[in-house]
């Protein structure tokens, strides 16, 4: 796959970098949106790898396809794994980090115990009025802008990788159709020649029967 599809591999690596940047700066909702694109791209590349292997006469089972998908997920999750995979230095498949989904891990939060109504009223009387939240600082705005850029880059890389994978599948299908059409033309030509030969043989047989 790395050798035969360099453009798709390059787009895949860009997607991995963008996703890792997004995971460091975006919230869970953003990353959840990107996870769908990640699964689509991984499935498309695994399917392409399987087609390439089968095109060379090497059937690929579901177990191998799963191992390829796991390796691709690992390459998306870790830059070192991506470098090993793209450099062709793997002797075995890789495993993605445990629980890697593209979403930050958070511990479940238990709701506070319900307080009696009287205690609530006393607490409300003691609590001061909330102070207004300060305006977002320049640093916060800059982080927000970087997060938006990272999200846009990740989405663009995912769309580009998905498009290239789809175009490759379409090109291979077109090649197969062209090959089948060529075989069909050859078969029709052979059928026409066979009919002509049969007709000529029948004519010669009739001429022989009429000879004195």
Low-confidence stretches are 101-112
Q: Which whole number gives the mean pLDDT? A: 75
Number of helices, counting only DSSP H or I runs of 4 residues or more: 6
Q: In percent terms, what proportion of residues is strand?
A: under 5%
Main sheet overview: none
The coarse silhouette is: elongated
Q: State the total count of DSSP E strands.
A: 0
Q: What is the ordering of alpha helices and beta strands?
A: HHHHHH
Structural class: mainly alpha
Cα distance spanning the termini? 73 Å
Oligomer: single chain
Q: Approximately how much helix is present in the residues?
A: over 70%
The gyration radius over C-alpha positions equals 32 Å
Question: Can you walk me through this structure?
Answer:
It is a single chain. The protein starts with 5 loop residues before the first helix and ends with a helix. Helix content is 73%, strand content 0%. With 212 residues, the protein is mostly helical. It has helices at residues 6-25, 28-55, 62-77, 79-86, 117-126, 138-210. The radius of gyration is 32 Å and the shape is elongated. It has 6 helices and no strands. Helix 1 packs antiparallel against helix 2 and helix 1 (6-25) runs antiparallel to helix 6. The chain has a domain at 6-103 and 145-172. The model is unreliable at 101-112 (pLDDT under 50).
């Amino acid at each position: 796959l790395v050798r035969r599809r360099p453009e798709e591999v390059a787009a895949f690596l860009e997607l991995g970098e963008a996703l890792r940047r997004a995971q460091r700066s975006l919230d869970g909702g953003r990353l959840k949106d990107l996870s769908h694109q990640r699964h689509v791209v991984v499935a498309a590349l695994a399917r392409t790898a399987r087609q390439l292997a089968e095109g060379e006469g090497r059937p690929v089972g579901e177990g191998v396809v799963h191992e390829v998908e796991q390796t691709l997920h690992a390459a998306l999750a870790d830059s070192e794994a991506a470098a090993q995979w793209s450099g062709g230095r793997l002797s075995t498949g890789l495993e993605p980090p445990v629980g890697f989904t593209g979403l930050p891990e958070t511990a479940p939060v238990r709701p506070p115990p319900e307080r009696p109504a009287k205690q609530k009223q006393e607490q409300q009387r003691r609590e001061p009025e909330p102070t207004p939240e300060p305006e977002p600082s320049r640093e916060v705005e800059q982080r927000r802008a970087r997060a938006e850029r990272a999200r846009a880059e990740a989405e663009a890389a995912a769309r580009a990788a998905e498009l290239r994978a789809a175009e490759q599948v379409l090109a291979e299908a077109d090649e197969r159709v062209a090959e089948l059409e060529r075989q069909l033309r050859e078969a029709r030509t052979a059928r026409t020649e066979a009919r002509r030969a049969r007709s000529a043989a029948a004519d010669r047989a009739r001429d022989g029967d009429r000879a004195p």
